[in-house]
Write a structure and sequence with these properties.
The protein contains two helices and six strands, in the order αβββαβββ. The chain has 121 residues and is α+β, with helices and mostly antiparallel strands. A hairpin with a 2-residue loop joins β4 and β5. The chain has a single domain, classed as 2,3-Dihydroxybiphenyl 1,2-Dioxygenase, domain 1 (Roll), CATH 3.10.180.10. The longest helix has 11 residues. Strands 3-6-5-4 form a four-stranded mixed β-sheet, covered by helices on one side. It has a two-stranded antiparallel ribbon with strand order 1-2.
Length: 121
């Protein structure tokens, strides 16, 4: 039985990225081995999109209120790139992950699947 989805973030500075997820996003974590943190990410969902070229994968973070979330995370040291964009799927902005590029933060307009629960069959 599948019990969860394990997401990987590849970072040029993994320690800085781990500190961001631990201290700025305040995600619960376990120390798997000498500071190698693994984070509980809470509810999740997976969408499959058509590829225009070679298949790639992307991680996005969802929130209920984009402005409120940006304000809270900015107070904790988060940085954002650009302005809020209005897209067909929701309102979004790129959030900088130290040493690991950006992740899309968005307030969805579409029905969400993450409340459907677990464990996976």
């Amino acid at each position: 039985m599948i019990t969860a989805v394990h997401t990987l973030v590849y970072a040029e500075d993994p320690d800085a990225a781990r500190v961001f997820f631990r201290d700025v996003l305040r995600w619960p974590n376990v120390d798997a081995n000498d500071g190698w943190l693994i984070f509980g990410t809470g509810p999740s969902e997976l969408g499959v999109h058509p590829a225009d070229g070679p298949p790639t994968h992307e991680i996005s973070l969802m929130c209920d209120n984009l402005e409120t979330t940006i304000a809270e995370l900015t107070e904790r040291g988060a940085q954002f790139e650009g302005d809020i964009a209005e897209r067909s799927f929701g309102r979004c902005i790129d959030m900088r992950i130290p040493g690991a590029g950006t992740m899309l933060l968005y307030q969805p307009r579409h029905p969400v699947a993450y409340p459907l629960g677990s464990p996976l069959p």
